[in-house]
Each structure stands twice: as C-alpha cells, then as structure tokens.
Amino acid sequence: MNKQVLAITQRIIDRSKTHRAAYLAKIEAAKSTTVHRASLACGNLAHGFAACSKEDKQKLRGLNHSDIAIVSAYNEMLSAHQPYQTYPEIIKAAVSETGGVAQFAGGVPAMCDGVTQGQAGMELSLMSRDVIAMSAAIALSHNMFDGTLMLGICDKIVPGLLIASMTFGHLPTAFVPAGPMPSGIANKEKARVRQQFAKGEIDEEALLDAESASYHSAGTCTFFGTANSNQLVVEVMGLHLPGASFVAPNTQLREELTKAAARQVTRLTTQSGNYMPVGKMIDERSIVNAIVALLATGGSTNLTMHIIAFARAAGIIIDFHDFHDLSAAVPLITRIYPNGHADINEFEEAGGMALLFKELIEGGLLHEDVETICGRGLTRYTQKPVLNNGKLEWIDGAKTSGDDQIIATVAKPFKTDGGLKVLKGNLGISVLKTSSLREGSFVIKAPAIVFEDQNEIDVAFNAGELDRDFIAVVRFQGPKSRGMPELHKLTPPLGVLQDKGFKVALVTDGRMSGASGKVPAAIHLCPEALDGGLISKVETGDMILLDGETGELTLLVSEEELAKRDNALFQNDGHHEGMGRELFGFMRRNLSSAETGACSLFDDLELETASKSADSGKV
Description:
Elements: H1 3-30, H2 42-49, H3 54-61, E1 67-72, H4 87-97, E2 101-107, H5 113-116, H6 125-140, E3 147-151, H7 157-167, E4 173-175, H8 187-198, H9 204-214, H10 226-236, H11 252-266, H12 278-281, H13 284-297, H14 302-313, H15 320-329, H16 344-349, H17 352-362, E5 371-372, E6 375-376, E7 383-388, E8 391-396, E9 420-425, E10 428-433, E11 443-451, H18 454-462, E12 470-474, H19 479-482, H20 491-499, E13 504-508, E14 521-526, E15 543-547, E16 552-555, H21 559-564, H22 585-589, H23 605-610
Parallel strand pairs: 1-2, 1-3, 3-4, 11-12, 12-13, 13-14
Antiparallel strand pairs: 5-6, 7-8, 9-10, 10-14, 11-15, 15-16
C-alpha cells in the first residue's frame, strides 16, 4: 500500500474512533437473530403482508425466509431512472427463486439537475439529498425487512440512499444500477455549441437540436458528472456487483445483473448464515477507496460533500483536507469528459472499471482486503460480466488499456496528482478542481467583480462588460442562503472569455456542476456569506489571488480597510418562495457548511469539525 494513503486512512480511523464505535454498537443492537418481522405483533404483520400473494404470505408468516426491501428512485422524467420501471417485478421473481420475498418498500423523490440548471427548482437540489435519505428511512421503518436493494443513480439520489443505508446499517444492502444511454453527440461538440449560443452565433433551435442529440434516450447521461461518479464510487465501495455500473440499460446482460444483485443480497442476511450488514461492510478503508477512485478519475466535485455526509452516517469523520492530501498521493489515470474527450461508454470500451481496479490495486492505492457484497477483497472486481449462452459469468478484465488516451497507468499517469486542491486563505477554505484546467490557468491574480446571482453574469456578459481579466465573486449561494444551487450557467460565458484570452476565475460559496472544470473555480467556500464569511465584504475592484499551485485563496485588502467594511446583507428577493422553496426553510436554516457535507441530518457536525483542526494538516 502507498504509505501516504495508509497514513491518511489511519488518521481518519483515529479521528473517527469514538463515533465509529458508537455507530457499530447501534447497528449491533438493531440486528436480529431471526427475521426482523418476528418482532411485529400479529396486527402489524398482517398489515405488512396484506397485499402479498398467498404464497408470499405463507413465507412471511414463517421465520426462515428473508424479506427484501426494494427502495427505488424510479420516475419517467429522469432518463437514468426510467429503466427502473421494470425492475421490481424482475427482482421479486429472482428473490422468490431463492425462497425469499421482495416487497416494494417505497419510492424516493428524484429530481434532475440537468432540467433545473439555472431555474428556481435547482435551489432544492442539494436539500433533496436529505429528503431522499429521510424518505428511504420511512420506507424501511416498518421493520419488515432483512435486506435492502437500493435503486438509484443520479446526483443527490445515490448519496441520499447511501445516508439511509448507513442509518439502517444493520441491514445487508446492495445497490442496483441501470446503466448509461448510448453515446450521442460528442461532449466536446456539445460544449462548443453552448459557447456558440452564448456568443449569439446560433439560435435556440440549433442549441436545442444539439442538446437533444446529446440527451437522447433512456439511461444515464454519458459525461463524467455526478451521476457516473456516483456509480464508480458505489462500485469501488463494493456495493455493486463487479462491472455492473456501466452496462447499457434494456439489455439481457443488464437484466441478468439485476437478477444476480437481487439474489446476492439474500446471501448476506441473517437467514443465509453469512450475515454481512452494510454498516459493518463499509468502514474507513472503504471510504478512502471511494475518495481514491474519485480522484484517480477526475470525478465530480459534488462528491466532496456527499462522501463526507454518508461517511458521517456510518460514524466516519472526514473533511476537505483528506481529499486534498489523498489527491497529492493519487495520480489521474483517466480522461473522461470534462477532463478529456471520451464519454463513459468509451471508458468502458477502453477497459472500464475492471482495468481501473487492476491499476489502482497494483499501484497500492486501494485497500484491497475490504468487505464487499461479493465477499472479502476487491480483486474480484478486476473481472467483468459477460453472457455465455445466456448465462451470466465473470471473466478477467482487460490487462492493458484499449485506448491509452482514455485510461493510462499508475506508472505513467496523465497527471501525478488527483486534480483536486484545497485552497485556504483569509477568504476561508474552498475546493478547486484542477484536473480539467488548461496549462497556465492554475494561478490568477485579478480584480473581483461581485455578483449575487448567476443570472447577473449573463446580463453583464451580453452587455460586453466582462471583456477583461477578472475573478467573478458569486456570493450568497451557500447552503443556508439558497440551498447551494449548482452554478452551471456560468460555464459557457466564462469559457468564452477564457477562449478570448482573458484570465478569468470564479470564487463562490455555491457549487458547480459535476461536468464543470475548464474555468478555475474556488467553490464550496466556507464560511459562506450568510454566516459572515469574508466573501461578504468583497467589493468590485478588490484584488484576489487564486493560486492552484500553492493552495492560496487570498483577498488582497488590508485588515484596516476590511475592518471599516460591513458585511453585505443577503437580499432574498423571493429566493425562498415559489417552486416549493417555501417548504424547505427549516432544512435550509439547519444545513451545515460544505466542508461538513452541507447536511441537515446531524446536529453535532459543525462542532465536531471545529474541534479537530489539529489533525487536518498534510501527512
């Protein structure tokens, strides 16, 4: 094992000792030596199986057969989740073959950030993660179940389901993916068309044609944004079957993998004699593996918050510094859009997950001896699934890359680090994704232009007011002010200005899309403006240094001058009303900082983070 990875892992273990011990004690107390429904009174149980078939009722009356919960984020508007429509019946039949029963325990909401980008609904996006966690908890609260199958893929959905899974950590759990849509228009071409539109060179009809050629069928969007980053992370944590993440939907192989996942979770229940609860299976090493894989592939910055949140649900405490220090030890070995031109299907064709596992294990970057839903050890994940005469089998994956411009080696990586930096200075702490940045754009010193709404940048851009070097400061976008919407609308205009030769960057207490990265962006800034962060005192014209090499983010204004300034006030202007936003005030007010997962579910999170500064430096 890489010594740096080992040292950071031990740091996390030491930091988490008290919380992890309490968590393991909690799930130990929640487990049952028999089926969980045995604790229900007759009236409870009768309600629980009232709608089941006569055969399933008979199974559920006994104490020998597992009852598996299906929790699904199916809806027809998310292309990635539409294939889940047929999964419950497939799963029920597969579990029945094992002698058990599967029940659809509940659905969880699933919104599409691609639809809500730049719209009012995007201000609910991050909070939807916690709603999903709570919704899944309600689905599992009946205590009927001995294991869980989680059906989810996209942005906040998988993190929400993971928080719920860790909360119900006494249950064996597997995640069931649905796969990416076929490749459409090349992502580079899509980005070019968006910039053409931003420059006024094409009309909306041409833009819609390009977007429709990209997002064109059922399945996950093919760029390496948050959805596909989620799938990669879940597989590296051992919660998918080997090679299941990126198999196309509506294929025989996909269906056989779904059946196999359903059967596999029954092999982990108490009744199987091979009990492996998910809260015990996922430990500190699993979380480090997730971060390593995210960094090695240049995945979505949204996961910096999500991993912190679902790790905390398992009693494991991590922060931005852990990402930063692991990034220094982990090389970038894939080029998938936005840090390359390939899409996720081309990544799979070049060797995919099996080859990624092989490289990271042989490079000493993954803890190989962790538990998975397939047993102990990640070497099993260097195999890929195939059909042999209609039967699902696993064979050895590729030994070498099918395209070394998409998947490189640990020995000869694309970059020697994982492309994620923590920036610190008088403005606070933030995250910078460097894996997609052009050479020469890592360090920018320029005057600030202050905005309090991403739409203001569009107005200034269209008016020709931004043809210069500057750092856009977009504030009051943090968790407590607006629920931390993604600021993806900023990418085309800032990209156009960058292409013109101007040095531009972004500093914000908000977040960017998982598909962003071309423009230097210090995101997730803590403390946020609404909490009195120094970003609330920045004025247009102030010089700012954003240094992606040294990790510095500094407002170059004297202490004397700053002492004279008042903090800017949040101008709500209706941002907490309409499109359902008025229903989320209680949650918005209780969201923690980005560094602690921007989460509303753990009361003591901020206090814990504030008290552990001594162990947050580099190893």
